[in-house]
Write a structure and sequence with these properties.
Layout (H helix, E strand, L loop, with lengths): L14 E4 L5 H11 L3 E6 L14 E2 L5 E2 L1 H7 L3 E5 L4 H12 L3 E4 L5 H4 L4 H7 L4 E6 L14 H7 L2 H4 L1 E2 L2 E2 L6 H25 L4 E5 H7 L2 H8 L18 E5 L5 E5 L3 H11 L18 H14 L4 H8 L6 E3 L3 H5 L2 H6 L2 E4 L2 E4 L22 H7 L4 H9 L3 E2 L3
Length: about 400
Amino acid sequence: MNDRSDNVAPLAGLRILDLTRLLPGPAATLHLADFGADVIKIEDTGAGDYLRDFAPKVANAAGRPANPVYEATNRGKRSLAVDLKQPRGRALLLELAAGADALIESFRPGVLARLGLGWDVLHARQPRLVLCSISGYGQDGPLAPQAGHDINYIATSGVLDQIRARGRPAVPNLQLGDLLGGALTALSTLLIALLAAQRTGVGRWVDVAMTEALLAHHYFPHAALDAGSTPHGGDTLLTGGSACYGVYETADGRFLAVGALEDKFWRAFCEAAGLAELTTRHWSQGEAPGSAAAQETIELVATRLRSRTLAQWNDVFTAVDACVTPVLTPAEALASEQAAARGVVHHAGAVTAVGPLARLSDHQLELKPAPRAGEHTRPLLAELGLSADRIDALIRDGIVRCAT
């Protein structure tokens, strides 16, 4: 990868108005900011994005109390605090929209329209503007008005049913609904609409339903249904029903992840683990996942792997091409040789940042701190051409707020 200081960031010149809160929307616009887009975080004049107060705080790079999740998902953005319930506040947003490429929001369906800022109004003001709306269930349908969080979206999409531990659905600490269904889906479809707008001059309304995005990616359970079987989490090939694909405890209470799906990897695993007698006991050779025979093989593997520590097994499998890796803790993953070699972990004071999302040639991540609510209100309004006196009046009347 080249690192030339004279290169222009790939999304330089793109302006995104971000009205989202919490995780899905800010995570999506984070990636846009990382690649050079000017992301303007539009916050209310009260608390602003309440993700700031959602978790324990640490001191950020400037020594101020900060929420690490907020800092990590909002770096590189600018913040404008404006009261959209006031006509003058809405007028300011429309002025901003006239010079923007996209607006992304995550209100409940209908809220933006009730504010007088719906798709028809925005499209009339700026025909090439892309509007991206993120919600749990989409802009219509019987569930559209309902509140929800990640656990509700993965439950409603059938994903949670397939993630099981000890026979019960297990809640993952990676927000699949918010991040796969919301952030990454919004990022990709927003960029699709922006590409179309560049070609045609006409923007589109992108309706991101987190449950639908999860549903669209749930390939294996749907394939099982098409084949006439009912997928049971814990019993299928990719959910722990086969010895070749699962998590096993070691002698010191740590865990190994075994992903020997192909027969060649399974044979390599068995031979390295001292289980050569199990090389023919693989799903590709007729041992059905979830069967009594498969469970017996799982127990034999489990017994063997419990005989050594994680470090001992790691010494064995490091040199073996068998898709076997240690289950790292978050701290170990951040400090790993692989992460260091790739240069993806960055530290700003007590806050850890990971990025960018992927390497692009001739692009280097420029870390900038997350904004305080209203930190850039004055300069952003000045960019719109407002005089200092008018800005002062807007502040005095409570239409906008500046960070203190």
